[in-house]
């Protein structure tokens, strides 16, 4: 595993660099999911500064001026080496400061992973507001999304059914995956790898517009659909 430090923001990302933002309300497991993927291991509480575990991994976390965690990791997806940059803003809040912070970093992200916990209906209900904010920022244009149901290991505490997750993803027209952040395996890697694939499709769609005849006028629109896995 090779991790790189965060570079300055660019308007256009190099072809092999994919920038994504991961979002979810309090208790959704966003930070744990991200760090298990980046570190390829799980620890109960890696966020307590000063602890031996945190000190061991702290050099892998790049804090911005706004205490936003940014990670970069080289991975191989579909026989291609890519660099995935993951931006973790922590728990989603509705206050003015939280909104301003998201807008500051949102414009540089190509795709968005929206995470909820299967043990929290509140985290599930909060996703619509997060997605609407992103779409409003992008003027309702096609945006790559991946819906992630976390804490799949807590099945006995489940309050959000698998069907509800599938139906939400269907209404958003995006992939839906479940994961357990306490184990580094394919289920952890899956959402991040799928996010890269969705960004790829969005890029390809932007390069290949579809032209529709409407009387004497021609209308061009980009394709960026995603599918349910």
UniProtKB/TrEMBL annotation:
Biased composition (Basic and acidic residues): 203-216
GO MF annotation, one: GTPase activity
Keyword Lipid biosynthesis on entry: no
Gene3D superfamilies from the UniProt entry: P-loop containing nucleotide triphosphate hydrolases
A family per Pfam: Ras
UniProt keyword list: GTP-binding, Nucleotide-binding
Region Disordered, annotated ranges: 203-224
Protein name per UniProt: Ras family domain-containing protein
Organism of origin: Pochonia chlamydosporia 170
């Amino acid at each position: 595993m090779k991790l790189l430090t965060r570079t300055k923001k660019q308007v256009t990302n190099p072809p092999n660099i994919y920038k994504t933002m991961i979002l979810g309300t309090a208790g959704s497991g966003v930070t744990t999911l991200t760090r298990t993927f980046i570190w390829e291991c799980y620890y109960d509480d890696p966020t307590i500064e000063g602890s031996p575990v945190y000190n061991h991994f702290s050099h892998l976390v790049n804090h911005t001026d706004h205490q936003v965690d940014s990670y970069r990791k080289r991975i191989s997806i579909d026989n291609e080496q890519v660099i995935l940059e993951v931006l973790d803003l922590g728990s989603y809040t509705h206050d003015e400061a939280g909104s301003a912070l998201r807008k500051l970093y949102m414009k540089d992200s190509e795709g968005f992973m929206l995470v909820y916990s299967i043990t929290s209906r509140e985290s599930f209900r909060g996703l619509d507001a997060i997605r609407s904010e992103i779409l409003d920022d992008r003027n309702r244009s096609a945006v790559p999304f991946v819906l992630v149901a976390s804490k799949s290991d807590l099945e006995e505490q489940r309050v959000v059914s698998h069907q509800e997750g599938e139906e939400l993803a269907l209404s958003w027209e995006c992939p839906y995956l479940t994961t357990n952040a306490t184990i580094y395996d394919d289920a952890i890697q899956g959402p991040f790898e799928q996010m890269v694939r969705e960004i790829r499709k969005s890029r390809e769609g932007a390069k290949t517009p579809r032209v529709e005849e409407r009387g004497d006028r021609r209308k061009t629109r980009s394709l960026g659909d995603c599918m349910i896995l």
